[in-house]
Amino acid sequence: MGLRKKNKASAEFSMSSLTDIIFLLLIFFMLTSSMVVPNALNLKLPGKRKSNTELKAPPANLIIKRDGSYWLSGQKVSINRIEKAVKKLGAKGRPVSMTVTPDPNVPNQYVVAIMDIAYRYSVETILIDPTKR
């Protein structure tokens, strides 16, 4: 008697492997998102403050031109000289500020480099939009 067994492909789908992948992705994104936050700049947005800080000296003016050159108080300077000047400003022990006015077409890396230097030496930096002057 020749009974033939039919080979049918199962149409069922196993959800266990899919849930494993989803949990692995969830863990991956949770870990990587927590590593991104410490590298961010501490920006202070405009608004009300609880304490007023009075500045004794006028802020230092830094202009970033389109070609990437830096002008500190009217003199062309290099990034190394800016770091020395900002370090000197921050070492005075009193609240100091600096204004940064970038050209609208300057790459962001030049502005971030200045903001990073100011952050390292605790100099409050004010970013001025040159199109709204």
Word description of this protein:
The protein has 133 residues and is of the alpha/beta class. The chain has a domain at 60-132: Nucleotidyltransferase, domain 5, CATH 3.30.420. Helix content is 35%, strand content 16%. The chain has three helices and five strands. It has helices spanning 16-36, 79-90, 108-120; strands spanning 60-64, 70-72, 75-77, 97-102, 124-127. It has a five-stranded mixed beta sheet, with helices on one face. Strand 1 and strand 2 (70-72) form a beta hairpin. The N and C termini lie far apart (97 Å). The mean pLDDT is 79.
What is the CATH fold-level name of one domain?
Nucleotidyltransferase, domain 5
Q: What's the total number of strands?
A: 5
Number of helical elements: 3
Q: Give the N-to-C terminal Cα separation.
A: 97 Å
Shape estimate? elongated
Helix/sheet category: alpha/beta
Widest sheet, order of strands: 3-2-1-4-5
CATH level-1 class of one domain: Alpha Beta
SSE blueprint:
Blueprint lengths: L15 H21 L23 E5 L5 E3 L2 E3 L1 H12 L6 E6 L5 H13 L3 E4 L6
Task: Pick out its properties.
133 residues, alpha/beta, Nucleotidyltransferase, domain 5, five-stranded mixed beta sheet, 5 strands, 35% helix, elongated
